[in-house]
Amino acid sequence: MGRWGWRLFEGDQDFDIVISISDDTLGIKTGQWEYRLSAMVHQSDMLAPPEAAVVYRTAEYAYELANVIVPYIRQKLNTSNFGERMFAASRAKESDPDDLFQESKYRTIILGALMMRAGARINTADLQHLRDLVPQINCTSRHTLFNDHGFRAPGRAQFLAALDHYRPGVARSFQAPSCFKCGNIEEDIGRKLLQCKKCIVATYCGKDCQRDQWREHRVSCIPPGQRRMLNV
Ligand SMILES: [Zn+2]
Ligand SMILES: [Zn+2]
């Protein structure tokens, strides 16, 4: 299992963690919910089979996701402090000394992203904890054979921007294009993002971020016709 996408929830690694959180890794079962946590993120174009990807692009699906699925999960997470208890359970597992790749900490990050995706309530201590975790998590700007775990670089910026803009009750999209440098999405800046003309993958909120990030981006800026592997 590896990383197949740039941003949070685009890779099967992230998706596996979402599934494990939905099951009983934290000792808190959400599998019997009408919509599981994964229902908020499984529409990633990179992972979905073609027939599902078609459905995920329809206006009907977008409406259902925004008005039925996400509010349902938000309400579930907010009831009886369910989300808060999930954070407590995940945080309690972070000190495992055998966890060389900080997978437990990254799980708390993914849980935080799911909570923000739903617009669920996150208390101040957990928000701060999420900020404190970010620098402890491995982050790579492209595919590597070893050490390929944790954030892909735009995913980290995307996560930090989501924390900055977090408001309870407001669902945060992690599928929307985000600036590869600062992580902001269209909703944050009030205009569409620019796309790197060479690779057609990287997106930026403006010329400044694009220029600032070029040295890091140039190694993975490959035109579509020249990409040899899907894994980024
Ligand atoms: Zn930016
Ligand atoms: Zn590029």
UniProtKB/TrEMBL annotation:
Residues spanning the membrane: none
Domain MYND-type: 179-221
One Gene Ontology term of the molecular function aspect: zinc ion binding
Keyword flag Transferase: no
One Pfam family per UniProt: zf-MYND
Keyword annotations of the record: Metal-binding, Zinc, Zinc-finger
Top-level taxon of the source organism: Eukaryota
Stated name of the protein: MYND-type domain-containing protein
Keyword Zinc: yes
Organism: Penicillium hordei
Gene3D superfamilies: 6.10.140.2220
